[in-house]
Amino acid sequence: ETIRNLIEDTGIDAAIPLPNVTGKILAKVVEYCKYHTEHPTPVSEDKRDEKRTDDIIPWDQDFCKVDQATLFELILAANYLDIKPLLDLTCKTVANMIKGKT
Fold first, then answer.
1. Tell me, what's the pLDDT at 54?
2. 90 burial type by CB count under 10 A (0-12 exposed, 13-18 middle, 19+ buried)
3. Is the pTM value of this prediction over 0.85?
């Protein structure tokens, strides 16, 4: 949604400024979006599923096997670019990392 708005505001031929997203992180975001466009996951209407942290598909688990700095940059990028499924995934990954630690 954010990128669509930027394209509409600046025109299709103009460079799109993404000051909060590095090239490395943008490449990961594009990889995520491309995979989920080609392999859509069924959307659950059950609100309880949003709070689950044990329902991450294997591809997403592998995607999130990155260092903590990259994971936090992905969270910031997903939030800035308004990509809710990626934001949910990365936040669930952090929640799973925290689970069991006191």
1. 76
2. buried
3. no
The confidence score (pLDDT) of residue 12 equals 65
- Answer whether 36's CB lies under 8 Å from 85's CB: yes
Q: For position 65, what pLDDT does the model report? A: 96
Where does residue 82 fall: left (phi above 0), alpha (psi -120 to 50 degrees), or beta otherwise? left
Q: Are 64 and 88 in contact (CB under 8 A)?
A: no
For residue 79, give the amino acid letter. N
Q: How far apart are CA 27 and CA 72, in angstroms?
A: 15
What is the per-residue pLDDT across 53-83, written as a single tens digit (0 to 9) for each?
A: 777 899 999 999 999 999 999 999 999 999 9
Cβ atoms of residues 37 and 93 within 8 Å: no
DSSP codes of every residue in 16-72? ---TT--HHHHHHHHHHHHHHHHSPPPPP--THHHH-SS---HHHHHHT-S-HHHHH
